[in-house]
From TrEMBL:
SUPFAM superfamilies: Homeodomain-like. This is TetR family transcriptional regulator. Residues 2-62 form the HTH tetR-type domain. InterPro entries: Homeodomain-like_sf (IPR009057), HTH-type_TetR-like_transc_reg (IPR050109), HTH_TetR (IPR001647). Residues 110-126 have a biased composition (Low complexity). Gene3D superfamilies: Tetracycline Repressor, domain 2. Pfam families: TetR_N (PF00440). It comes from Streptomyces termitum. GO terms for molecular function: DNA-binding transcription factor activity; transcription cis-regulatory region binding. Keywords: DNA-binding. Residues 107-134 are annotated as: Disordered. PROSITE patterns: HTH_TETR_2 (PS50977).
Length: 210
């Protein structure tokens, strides 16, 4: 059973799929999560605090997914899997796409860190969220280091290839430009390129990324 905090974050994410963030009402979120408004404010402090927590959870969920994929397969195949999953995940989740690219669209929350000198939140998870969302480069670096020291540079390269696909998706059949919401998975060619690059690298005498 989800905690009250998770239920509120789920309700906020569902509301954001239907309405711009400015139109999302705290009272409606509390009702959807079946908790009191006081519980909501105890957890997040404010709507801005809720936005910070929502974005922080999205970043954490992405990093957890990267770790699972890296643990499930050996490199370099795992790096290609992470790259392909990143494209699919970013296409499905606008908040993650904004975190990875820095392209925050109108209607989305774009929280900043809590102001200096503000009273620390009583909830530990909120204190972490109040540090503000990671910048795209910070999130990319954190994901790359999930691969460990040996493969961090390779993972970063694979992720940068993936993000180039997120920013400029492959053309659909017929050559028409894709609409912003028509994100497509990575092409087999890109996946094969990543695997080939690192297959060559592991056979080279250096055994490390240049």
């Amino acid at each position: 059973m989800p905690t009250a905090r998770d239920a509120l974050l789920d309700a906020a994410l569902a509301a954001l799929a239907r309405h711009p963030w400015s139109a999302v009402r705290m009272a409606d979120l509390a009702a959807a999560a079946r908790v009191s408004r006081q519980t909501l404010y105890n957890e997040f402090g404010s709507k801005e605090g809720l936005a910070r927590a929502l974005v922080r959870r999205e970043a954490d969920a992405y990093l957890d997914g990267v770790r699972r994929l890296l643990a499930a397969r050996e490199a370099p195949a795992s790096l290609a899997a992470v790259a392909e999953w990143t494209v699919v995940r970013a296409g499905d989740r606008p908040l993650l796409r904004a975190l990875l690219t820095g392209a925050w669209t109108e209607g989305m929350p774009r929280p900043r860190a809590a102001r200096p000198g503000a009273r620390p939140a009583p909830v530990p998870a909120q204190r972490r969220a109040d540090g503000g969302p990671p910048a795209p480069g910070e999130l990319l670096a954190a994901a790359a280091w999930c691969a460990g020291e040996r493969w961090a540079a390779g993972c970063e390269l694979a992720l940068r290839l993936a993000l180039s696909h997120v920013v400029a998706p492959a053309l659909p059949p017929g050559g028409q430009c894709a609409e912003p919401d028509s994100w497509r998975p990575m092409t087999p060619t890109m996946t094969k390129l990543i695997e080939t690059i690192f297959s060559v690298e592991t056979r080279s005498p250096r055994k490390t990324m240049p």
